[in-house]
Automatic annotation (TrEMBL):
CDD domains: HTH_LacI, PBP1_LacI_sugar_binding-like. Gene3D superfamilies: 3.40.50.2300, lambda repressor-like DNA-binding domains. One of its GO terms (molecular function) is transcription cis-regulatory region binding. InterPro entries: HTH_LacI (IPR000843), LacI/GalR-like_sensor (IPR046335), Lambda_DNA-bd_dom_sf (IPR010982), Peripla_BP_I (IPR028082). SMART domains: HTH_LACI. Pfam families: LacI, Peripla_BP_3. It comes from the Bacteria. This is HTH-type transcriptional repressor CytR.
Length: 344
């Protein structure tokens, strides 16, 4: 099916247009939109795909939003289940949001959306009026979900600065550039001269910003290799793999800033396996100051970001938008702090 053009001036897609695009009857589309089980899986998939491509929004979503009948908000994480339940960042963010909403009368719904099919299901769930607003977490690249949801009139708040140009979607973030800069500056000030970084995915603002902070700290420094970095996915295994790659490229490296505690923990494993002592041979700093930092050997120096507070502020911002009807809420950037432990 071809992508429909719904730019400025285009009319809202109709039920009939969705039916035509999906090759089914209007009644079938209506049953899918209303959640009826009396539809074949193939027809349901075709309708959901057409809904996604056309950007169809059922009229009753607007009525539900206006009346606040749902009394719930969604916490949507664009990652696989293994990462959502395996990394402390997501649990801390969710805990903060839950605590902020505990006395608000709003229920918090956790939704995981990693594949294109899951994205379409999220859009359908939202457009059916099941939630009054959304918090979007770990958005990658040019993911159309934030813009599609925001343009549908539902309040949306993002965790982290949008990576690409999107409508003016409010967000809560940490000072990723400043935190990475402070970690790298500290390593340099301690006499380290071959400083590497294991950065996050470059299709996410957090990965881009932490790499930018590292580069900013080393800009103009004499005798320091430029852009000695490898890309990870914020997970432990990717940190171990990236550390091995960096040691192969620069066996004499003497420090590494990793853009997450889990990647730093993976780096410690690789360094030990390759006969490097920490911090005597290689100093290591992570980012997050999560529970992981206190349980590595040696304990991990890390850039502290207030993850749980970020979650609270996201929920508070979303409540303001829902209750006040204001979509133009200023973004919030929270400070970071370097916490020193045995790894440096």
């Amino acid at each position: 099916m071809a992508e429909a053009d719904h730019g400025h001036g285009a009319s809202r897609p109709t039920l009939e247009q969705v039916a035509a695009a999906a090759g089914v009857s209007r009644g079938t589309v209506s049953r899918v939109v209303n959640g009826s089980p009396q539809v074949s899986e193939s027809a349901r998939a075709a309708v959901l795909q057409a809904v996604h491509e056309l950007g169809y929004v059922p009229n009753r979503a607007a009525r539900s939003l206006a009346s606040r009948k749902a009394d719930s908000v969604a916490f949507v994480v664009s990652e696989p289940e293994t990462r959502v339940f395996g990394e402390p960042f997501f649990a801390s963010l969710l805990r903060g949001a839950s605590r902020e909403l505990s006395n608000s009368g709003l229920q918090l719904v956790l939704v995981m959306s990693w594949t294109a099919r899951e994205h379409a299901q999220v859009e359908q769930y939202v457009h059916n009026g099941h939630v009054d607003g959304l918090m979007l977490v770990s958005v990658h690249g040019d993911d159309p979900l934030p813009a599609r949801l925001s343009s549908g009139g539902i309040p949306v708040v993002m965790a982290g600065r949008p990576h690409v140009t999107t409508p003016e979607i409010p967000y809560v973030d940490s000072d990723n550039v400043g935190g990475a800069r402070s970690a790298t500056n500290y390593l340099y000030d301690q006499g380290r001269r071959r400083i590497a970084t294991i950065t996050g995915p470059q299709d996410m603002s957090v990965g881009v910003d932490r790499l930018a902070g590292y580069r900013s700290a080393l800009r103009g420094r004499r005798g320091v290799p430029r852009d000695l970095y490898a890309i990870g996915d914020f997970g432990r295994e990717s940190g171990e793999r990236a550390m091995r790659q960096l040691l192969e490229r620069e066996p004499a490296l003497d420090a590494v800033f990793a853009a997450s505690d889990l990647m730093a923990a993976g780096a410690l494993i690789a360094l030990r396996a390759m006969g490097r002592r920490v911090p005597e041979d290689v100093a290591v700093i992570g980012f997050d100051d999560s529970e992981v930092a206190g349980h590595t050997d040696p304990p991990l120096s890390s850039v502290r970001q207030p993850v749980e507070f970020m979650g609270r502020e996201m929920a508070r911002m979303l409540r303001t938008m829902i209750e006040g009807g204001d979509r133009k809420v200023a973004p919030l950037i929270l400070p970071t702090e370097l916490v020193l432990r045995g790894s440096t």
